[in-house]
Design brief:
This protein is of the alpha+beta class. It is 39% helix and 18% strand. Bound molecules: dinuclear copper ion.
């Protein structure tokens, strides 16, 4: 009698009742389990969304990520080899020396000094070797190499639920503050100081470096670099970043982008950093609407005034229904790729949706909760006023 078809009625354990069916039933149970396990494994892989295109740790664009990937690969394959070796020997012994029907019970053995010594020494050597190598790798990627190009420094502050980037020395003495879109020159070490204004967040650009926590009242430091010879596409290239620490309601919507560009393009961007021009009537109208409704939380004309930032933070921390809160600096919004902390692409349509009702775009954000404009749900602005705001913010002519 051949094996029954898969999923045949009666082949599942609960339904297998007939005695005559038992041997083939057992075989089909095994097969069904194999199929089920395969399906679950496939679903798991599918659900993890593994893809090199987006946010992947399997592709390194710089020395720090490369070192971490090398370390991970060696650890992974040593552990896979150990697993199969140990499990293989275990299975072999269990099958080869099992009790067979009609034969005496195999003799029980206890203690084998040579084997025990060998089985202690090998794992000790493995753990020591991998551990020591890991520690050396940590020191190696701790700081950028001293003989390379001059590093560029960026201060990153995490807020619920967006990232603030400050370039203290990028714009020829002009301080630059931006949000959610980190622009970096290629082939140059970027040193970062990580801070948080509220709860613990975590800064992670998988293709450039591993994650590091952003802790209130404490500075954490890291660095990375994007290497042109590791990036196949033409510059500028956009990489995905995300917050990797559960930090409240909109944690899953706290992302950012890293745009890797040529140094000359970066310098042009830094030189052009400034408020959107008001050279049309529409832009002038937009600027007035912005000044009347948005400047309690947002800055549009250069770096945030530290005193103003401090008062916004105080407003946020002390609460109240309608208080100022730290919000993304919008001076260079028109040069960014995304809106609402990397959730949607930035264009007229998405900016209109955001201005009409931010809650629809990014549930949980503080703008719809705290801003006077949104206390009745959608914006207290006419379509014409929203048009003017969009024209101003994106410098549409
Ligand atoms: Cu910030 Cu999760």
């Amino acid at each position: 009698m051949g094996p029954p078809p898969l999923w045949r009625k009666g082949s599942l354990p609960m339904q297998s009742t007939s005695n005559s069916n038992r041997p083939s039933g057992r075989r089909s149970i095994l097969k069904n389990r194999t199929v089920l396990f395969g399906l679950i494994a496939a679903l798991f892989l599918f659900a993890t969304g593994c893809s090199k295109e987006g946010q992947s740790t399997w592709e390194a664009f710089g020395p720090v990520a490369q070192k971490q990937l090398d370390l991970f690969n060696v650890l992974l394959w040593v552990m896979v080899a150990t697993f199969f070796l140990v499990e293989g020997v275990l299975l072999y012994a269990a099958i080869r020396y099992r009790k067979r029907p009609g034969q005496p019970r195999p003799p029980q053995i206890h203690g084998n000094t040579t084997l025990e010594v060998v089985l202690t020494i090998i794992p000790t050597i493995l753990v020591l070797a991998l551990g020591i190598w890991s520690v050396f790798a940590l020191f190696e990627i701790d700081k950028p190499p001293g003989d390379g190009p001059e590093p560029m420094h960026v201060n990153v502050t995490a807020h619920q639920w967006w990232f603030e980037f400050e370039y203290p020395d990028a714009g020829n003495g002009k301080k630059i503050i931006t949000a959610n879109d980190l622009k970096i020159p290629v082939d140059r070490p970027i040193t970062l100081s990580l801070f948080s204004d509220d709860v613990i967040h975590s800064f992670w650009v998988p293709k450039l470096a591993g994650k590091l926590d952003m802790v209130p009242t404490h500075e954490n430091k890291m660095w990375f670099q994007a290497d042109s010879d590791k990036i196949d596409d033409d510059l500028p290239v956009t990489l995905f970043g995300t917050c990797a620490e559960l930090c409240g309601l909109a944690h899953a919507l706290m992302r950012f982008r890293v745009t890797v560009m040529e140094q000359t393009d970066f310098d042009s961007w830094a030189a052009a950093y400034g408020p959107p021009p008001t050279n049309t009537d529409k832009a002038k109208q937009g600027a007035q609407i912005f000044a009347a409704n948005c400047t309690l939380c947002h800055t549009i004309d250069g770096p945030d005034d530290p005193a103003l930032s401090a008062s916004r933070l105080t407003g946020f921390l002390t609460g109240g229904d309608i208080t100022p809160v730290p919000a993304p600096n919008l001076t260079d919004l028109r040069t960014r790729n995304t809106l609402a902390a990397g959730i949607v692409d930035l264009n007229e349509t998405t900016l209109r949706q955001w201005l009409q009702n931010p809650e629809d775009v990014k549930p949980g954000n503080y703008m719809s909760e705290r801003a006077v404009l949104y206390q009745n749900g959608s914006a207290d602005l006419t379509d014409e006023e929203i048009d003017a705001l969009i024209g101003y913010l994106l410098d549409l002519r």
